[in-house]
From TrEMBL:
GO terms for biological process: branched-chain amino acid metabolic process; methylation. This is Catechol O-methyltransferase. PROSITE patterns: SAM_OMT_I. The keyword Nucleus does not apply. Transmembrane segments: none annotated. Belongs to the class I-like SAM-binding methyltransferase superfamily. Cation-dependent O-methyltransferase family. One of its GO terms (molecular function) is branched-chain-amino-acid transaminase activity. Keywords: Methyltransferase, Pyridoxal phosphate, S-adenosyl-L-methionine, Transferase. It comes from the Eukaryota. Its cofactor is pyridoxal 5'-phosphate.
């Protein structure tokens, strides 16, 4: 499902789409022949970081790269494919062995061919051909296709006023993705529901069979262990304390249904109505799980609300905005709990590592009417931490909720303290029950963990 949110699109069908401004990168190459430009790898994307940041600083939105050998042929925008429609109606996109082929671009070409359009995959000579295009877009998985308003190279700027054809192709693709139009192209593959709604049991192969679904993963032994080893066992090693690969599969079946439920049942712009509809959805899906976790869930709601309200009360006295930080949000429930209490001018920054969860959370927060008080960033909390200080306007956070993966709590807390994001004045909350299937934490173990975190003079910690 397209995530959106990368670049601003039209707010309605009647409003003209806002295009982005690109600049040709003259000092950097995106990839080289016989290199790894066509590989889906982190290093492939990293090559664009400095050039795109430089472009943004000079007033552009993104970069356009030409081939490394001759600086003549179009490669791609930043990390998105170049697509264009010529004045005579042809769909043209570069053919190059040095860039990653976009699946979205492949699907758009298939739709274009089905409509009778001429589709050409070939080298595009920038200087000789850029003036032949009436429409240009940048194409990728999350954004689908975004309108390009202009491309600048040196002292010359090429503008593209139209976007009707590409927008129509995009609409056809997203309609199939959302299930609003029949799949005439063979894009979609039907899979079974992860769970049988009638029994709360797996409907297809899954390790969570019968009551075993609730069994603890890596249950921690008793308190004969010293406090630090206990904390390390619960909060590490890397990869523990979060959903297993199987848990991630379990989660992925319901977020779309949740979003649909919220849109159908909740009142737009009413955070409490959205929260109620989310509660209703999960109660209906898993009544047995809800009964077992109701008390802990209510404690989490109450604690987050009380701590946020306390920070807001302090801000009224000081006259300064409240700055909140959340690490991990899933579909935005706790973000709404916090943001709905914030006064105007205050802000919650959320970091979510799963881009689909971030997309769902963004839409649900927007539906609740809280987009002016909430910013959801996609990325790993550790990797994003260096940017958080600037996003918080170089001020410490008043409230921080750790709600991502337990294995990262200690490391991320230390990092945020070192950066000055967390100080002695910050209220810090740690959720120990991050994911269904996590290890059961006894009250005695809870106290050991609390002592570990409370033994830090710079943190006022609450364990959920």
């Amino acid at each position: 499902m397209p995530a959106g949110g990368y670049y601003k699109k039209a707010a309605s069908a009647e409003q003209e789409e806002v295009g982005i401004k690109a600049v040709v990168s003259e000092d950097h190459d995106r990839a080289a022949p016989r290199g790894t430009g066509a590989v889906k790898a982190a290093g492939n994307y990293a090559a664009d970081l400095n050039p795109v940041h430089a472009a943004i600083k000079t007033g552009y939105n993104t970069t356009l790269y030409l081939d490394a050998k001759e600086q003549r042929y179009v490669e791609e925008f930043s990390v998105a494919n170049f697509v264009g429609v010529t004045h005579d109606g042809k769909y043209v996109t570069p053919k190059s062995s040095t860039i990653l082929e976009s699946t979205t671009n492949i699907l758009l070409m298939q739709i274009a061919k089905a409509r009778g359009m001429v589709v050409e995959e070939r080298p595009i000579d920038f200087e000789a051909e850029i003036g032949n295009f009436k429409e240009v877009g940048m194409c990728g998985t999350a954004a689908v296709v975004v309108k390009v308003e202009s491309i600048t190279r040196g002292d010359k700027t090429y503008t593209f006023d139209s976007f009707d054809t590409i927008a129509s192709l995009r609409s056809a693709l997203t309609s199939v993705q959302h299930g609003d139009a029949p799949d005439e192209y063979g894009f979609m593959t039907e899979v079974c529901n992860v769970f049988d709604d009638a029994t709360d049991k797996p409907a297809c192969d899954s390790p969570y069979e019968s009551a075993g679904m609730l069994s603890a993963v890596g249950i921690v032994d008793g308190l004969e262990q010293p406090s630090v080893p206990l904390v390390r066992k619960l909060f590490g090693p890397k990869g523990a304390g979060g959903p297993t690969a199987d848990m991630a599969t379990w989660y992925s079946g319901y977020e779309r249904e949740l979003l649909d439920h919220v849109v159908q049942k909740a009142t737009p712009g009413n955070p409490d109505s959205v929260l109620r509809s989310m509660d209703e959805f999960w109660r209906a899906k898993f009544p047995r799980l809800q009964e077992q976790t109701a008390a802990r869930w209510e404690e989490k709601r109450r604690t987050i609300s009380e701590k946020t309200a306390a920070m807001v009360a302090k801000s009224v006295v000081s006259g300064r905005p409240v700055r909140c930080l959340e690490l991990g949000t899933y579909c935005g429930y706790s973000a709404i709990l916090i943001a709905k209490l914030l006064p105007e001018g205050s802000m919650l920054h959320t970091v979510e590592s799963d881009y689909l969860f971030a997309a769902f959370a963004t839409k649900i927060v927007e539906f609740a009417g809280l987009e002016s008080k909430t910013k959801i960033w996609m990325g790993d909390a550790g990797e994003e931490s260096a940017l958080l200080r600037a996003r918080l306007e170089n001020e410490p956070a008043d409230l921080v909720l750790f709600d991502h993966s337990r294995n990262q709590y200690v490391e991320d807390l230390q990092r945020l303290e070192d950066l000055g994001v967390v100080t002695a004045e910050s209220a810090v909350l740690f959720d120990l029950g991050v994911h269904l299937g996590d290890a059961t934490v006894t009250q005695a173990q809870h106290e050991v963990i609390r002592e570990f975190f409370m033994d830090r003079s710079s943190v006022v910690a609450t364990m959920l």
